[in-house]
Design goal:
There is one protein chain. The chain is mainly α. The protein has a domain at 105-292: Orthogonal Bundle (MetI-like fold). Helix content is 74%, strand content 1%. The protein has helices at 5-32, 37-45, 51-60, 69-81, 96-131, 140-149, 152-166, 186-222, 226-233, 238-250, 252-265, 270-275, 281-290, 294-322, 324-330, and strands at residues 87-88, 94-95. A hairpin with a 5-residue loop joins strand 1 and strand 2 (94-95). Helix 6 (140-149) crosses helix 8 (186-222). The chain starts with a helix and ends with a helix.
Length: 331
Amino acid sequence: MRIPVRFIASRVAFYLFTAWAAITINFFLPRMMKGDPVSAYMQRAAGKITPEAERSLRILFGLDKDTSLWQQYIDYWKLLFNGDLGRSFSNGLAPVGDVIASALPWTLGLVGIATILSFLIGTSAGAVIGWRRGSKADAIVPVSVFFSTVPYFWLGLIAIAVFSSILGWFPASHAYDKGARPELSFDFIGQVIAHGALPAITIVIASLGGWILGMRNMMLTVLDEDYITVAQAKGMPNRRVLWNYAARNAVLPQLQSFALSIGFIVGGTIVMEMVFSYPGVGKLLLDATNAKDYPLMQGLFLIITMAVLVANILADVAYAILDPRTRQTEA
């Protein structure tokens, strides 16, 4: 299977331009906002910072008033190439990269697994429901869509009230027991699974409706194609026609949506992490916004944007592999 060079070059050029635009906007956005991180930090310090210390902080954060905006922009790119995202005011001037790295595994573990599960379950269920159109299986669609229309906030609170407060099956908040220290042990892993099960199930239930409905509708369209009729006329088993022909083509539009979902995994589900007090990137972004921690906000926005771009690149590659028409059109 050969992917044309022109297809690859056009995609690389597009995503390089998009990455440059995202980084540039990420640089200028905090500087367009009222105030700046150093001024906000000085207000919290209540006059305990000397003018010399303020000057040092502005140089540290690339906000020196004696430096031109263009030079600040160049310096920002140099810092990025060195892997330096700045310092977080709300975390004792700790490196932003370290602060994000401490929260990222929790979000990838919770939202990542939940998103992948909801996609696999929803897409598979949608394919089967579409194949058996007109059967009792169609009743699953409105039920799943109903749960998708319920806001995450309410769904999370209902889950806590029922499965934590009343039944006591799952812990209500946090990623592990209070007083426990993160370590590689069966006891700690069990705590993480127990605390993450309820928010993960909630995310899966809230996301299933969209995947089921989208896949079912695409299956109804694909099943009317001639190649499906020909495959059935040749006497191929229904299972093979379903998965090798119908589902394989019907899933293509789902890949782009899945790519966006994978990209936004890094951003986390802010409302869900807030409801369950889960220490992920979403809650970290919320805390940074409340604290006006611009360097941390800037680093989080950059990481989220890059994750979405990488996910879309992977989706384009998968789309080109599964659908030859894409490669031929670009070529």
